[in-house]
Amino acid sequence: xxxxxxxxxxxxxxxxxxxxxxxxxxxxxxxxxxxxxxxxxxxxxxxxxxxxxxxxxxxxxxxxxxxxxxxxxxxxxxxxxxxxxxxxxxxxxxxxxxxxxxxxxxxxxxxxxxxxxxxxxxxxxxxxxxxxxxxxxxxxxxxxxxxxxxxxxxxxxxxxxxxxxxxxxxxxxxxxxxxxxxxxxxxxxxxxxxxxxxxxxxxxxxxxxxxxxxxxxxxxx
Length: 221
Fold this sequence. Notes:
two-stranded antiparallel ribbon
């Protein structure tokens, strides 16, 4: 329980059972143990369970989270689990991004909006603290629909521009292309067109015909 409690400090805002399992079930904690351990922490009032939503969400009080974070640092595990947290969120964002053409907008937002604080924490770790620019770029670009449809265009532009400043387009043409394509959605007029053209050029270099088509569509709007 103490080990799981410490690992939960990498989450910001709230988290679901699936997220906890993906990030925290490793080494001495198995996937099958997560629910019972988490329930025990709820019973001890160390974790708060919100059962009002369709799926139960959990959270730590900020003072409790700070204590757990210190314990995770003391165990020299913070870097490892912060990275696991960020990698999981990239996977979540990319899955939603790929599904965005096939599902309703409200369903898409229901998948990603609850994780907004976690996305921010991962972007902060990857880009502001400069731990992994490529990972941060992948996350910032994949969250296009959250930035645009979630009313976070200004924040989205900030993270995308930050990512573009930190990665090399020569080394990561596909990542850069996705960032420019997302940036085109968050602008209008000539700026929108220029971003889409830049994205298409990079998608050509990356040999991504699907991306090229999306960039052409964006430039034509």
